[in-house]
Amino acid sequence: MTDNNNGQAINKKNRQHFIRKHGFPILMGLIIVTLFVSPEAKSWTIRQLMRTGLYNVNIEKDMTMLPQMETGFDFEDEKGNIQNTSSLKGKVVFINFWASWCPPCRAEFPSIETLYSKFKNDPDLFFLMINEDDNRAAGRDYLQNKGYITPMFKTRSVVPANIYNGTLPTTLVLDKKGKVVFRHEGFANYASEDFISQINTLIKE
Q1: How many CB atoms lie within 10 A of CB 99?
Q2: Lowest mean pLDDT: which of 39-53, 108-122, 129-143?
Q3: pLDDT in tens, 155-200
Q4: 3-state SS class at 164
Q5: Cα–Cα distances in Å, from 171 out to 105, 119, 121, 130?
Q6: Residue 152 to residues 77, 88, 96, 140, 149: CA-CA distances in angstroms?
Q7: What mean pLDDT comes out for the span 116-121?
Q8: What's this model's pTM, rounded to 2 decimal places?
Q9: Banded pLDDT at 32 (limits 50, 70, 90)
Q10: Paired residues of 155 in beta bridges
């Protein structure tokens, strides 16, 4: 009995020593694995970085500095209605290419949802959220599971490469004349006061 007690005490002491010596590297390893495996974990990490304000974006003050780009392509809404972006002239258009499996897209989506909530009833601003999931249901399920109300669209023609070259997420803003006044590849915060103010300025023009 004494030998068993001694053996258990030694095993316990060895486990404690092992945890003290290797606990931190093991923990870091688990965190890294989780980040690589889980899109949600990756997006959460990116959102923490966005809170620093380093990923706030601004629409170019001198819009003439951006080259003129071909912006025409067809898109389809959830009801199967197909339009061309040229039909949106007269409105400011916020375009975002995203996918449910894309961690940076997931990370910035709450800021886009906030932006949409502020302007959803404004007839002069159109949100063209282009889902790039192979399966439409995957994008729809993601929005529903998160409780997002941002509309979802799919492309129905070739998108000009200078608008979207496959990088997710990619975001653009078109002015009322259909000219690109903002283009950004990668995640960003679209709910900052400056960005919202700049959108308002475009709407009033």
Answers
A1: 19
A2: 39-53
A3: 999 999 999 999 999 999 999 999 999 999 999 999 999 999 999 9
A4: coil
A5: 10, 17, 21, 10
A6: 7, 16, 10, 8, 9
A7: 97
A8: 0.78
A9: very low
A10: 75
To the nearest 10 degrees (0 to 180), the angle between helices 103-119 and 39-50 is 60
Q: What share of the chain is helix, strand, coil (3-state, %, to 5)?
A: 45, 20, 35
Rg value, the chain, Cα: 24
130 in Cβ contact with 154 (< 8 Å): yes
What backbone torsions phi and psi does residue 180 show, to the nearest 5 degrees? Answer: -70, 120
CA distance linking residue 58 with residue 82, whole number of Å: 31
State the pairing for strand pair 92-98/125-131: parallel
Encoding tokens for residue 37? Answer: 């495996």
Which residues, in sequence order, are bridge partners of residue 74?
A: 84
